[in-house]
Structure formats: C-alpha cells, structure tokens
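Appendix B. Raw example, untouched.
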Amino acid sequence: MKKYFMLVIVLILVSFAAGCASLTQPSAQVDNTAGAAALPPYSGPKARIAVADFDVKAAKAGGAIGSGLREMLVTALI
C-alpha cells in the first residue's frame, strides 16, 4: 500500500512538472501600418453629428459622469 501511495505521489509531481514546462511566453507582433495607407485621403463634405449627455442611472453615480462619457465619445469621433 505504501509503494502504491508513493507511486501516485510521484506521478502527480511529474504531471505538475510537465505542465509547468509547457508554459511559454507568446511573442506578440503589432503591425501599425496595416490600415493606414489602404485608403486615399478624403477631401469631400463631412457629416455632422450631435452627441447629448448620457443619463447615468446607477445608484452612486454623480451627474458629471454623463458629461464625461459625452466628452469621451466626442473626442473619439473627432
């Protein structure tokens, strides 16, 4: 019984060690020029858009959160 228990413990330790050995850091490559040169510059009329304040209905949210969200959206659209 003691040999069986030790064998199980050794197998568990080996499986943990084998699982940790396969952890490698993936290499990330970012290509910033993928969509930059795909379209020619646009010189025609531009569309206009109006963005109103958001109504934040969360319990502990202040009134400035809706205005802040509006400003973030306007900044992202410009």
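End of appendix B.
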